[in-house]
C-alpha cells in the first residue's frame, strides 16, 4: 500500500466515523459533542460523580467564570445542579440532575451496544491492533494539537 493509498483510507475512515458519530447522536436532542464531553467529565472524574467549578475550568482550559457561565446554561436546562460544600462554603460542586443522569446513561448504553456490535465484527485480534493504533493517534494529537 502506498502512502497516498493510506492517506485516502484514513481520510475516508475519518469521514465515515464523523458520520457515524453524527447519526448515532440523533436521539440526544440539543446536546452537542462539547456538552457530552463536559457531562462525561462531571460524571466520571470522581467516584462521587461531581466536580468543582475550578476542576472543570482547568479541564476545559478556561477561566472559572467562563465555566460558570456554561454551567448556568446547563442549570437552566435542568442538566446539572450546584451544591455548596458543607466544609468550605466557597467550594461549589457540580453534578448531573437525576433526570439528566437517567437520560445520559440510557444514551450511553445505546452507544455501548452499538460499539459492542462493531467490536464483535472486528474480532479480538483486530481490536487489540485498533486499541494500539488509536493510542498512538491519541498521543500524537494530544502532543501536537492539544
From TrEMBL:
Q: Tell me the keywords, alphabetical order.
A: DNA-binding
| Domain HTH marR-type: residue ranges | 1-139
The terms under GO molecular function for this entry are:
DNA binding; DNA-binding transcription factor activity
- Report the InterPro entries cross-referenced here: HTH_MarR-typ, MarR/SlyA-like, WH-like_DNA-bd_sf, WH_DNA-bd_sf
| Any single biological process term in GO | response to stress
Is the NADP keyword given for this protein?
A: no
Question: Which organism is this protein's natural source?
Answer: Catenisphaera adipataccumulans
Protein name as catalogued: DNA-binding MarR family transcriptional regulator
Amino acid at each position: 500500500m502506498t502512502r497516498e493509498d493510506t492517506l485516502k483510507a484514513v481520510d475516508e475512515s475519518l469521514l465515515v466515523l464523523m458520520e457515524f458519530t453524527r447519526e448515532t447522536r440523533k436521539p440526544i436532542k440539543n446536546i452537542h459533542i462539547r456538552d457530552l464531553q463536559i457531562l462525561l467529565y462531571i460524571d466520571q472524574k470522581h467516584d462521587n460523580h461531581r466536580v468543582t467549578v475550578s476542576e472543570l475550568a482547568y479541564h476545559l482550559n478556561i477561566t472559572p467564570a467562563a465555566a460558570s457561565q456554561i454551567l448556568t446554561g446547563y442549570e437552566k436546562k435542568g442538566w446539572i445542579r450546584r451544591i455548596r460544600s458543607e466544609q468550605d462554603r466557597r467550594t461549589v460542586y457540580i453534578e448531573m440532575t437525576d433526570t439528566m443522569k437517567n437520560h445520559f446513561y440510557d444514551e450511553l448504553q445505546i452507544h455501548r451496544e452499538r460499539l459492542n456490535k462493531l467490536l464483535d465484527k472486528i474480532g479480538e485480534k483486530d481490536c487489540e491492533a485498533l486499541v494500539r493504533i488509536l493510542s498512538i493517534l491519541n498521543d500524537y494529537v494530544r502532543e501536537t494539537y492539544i
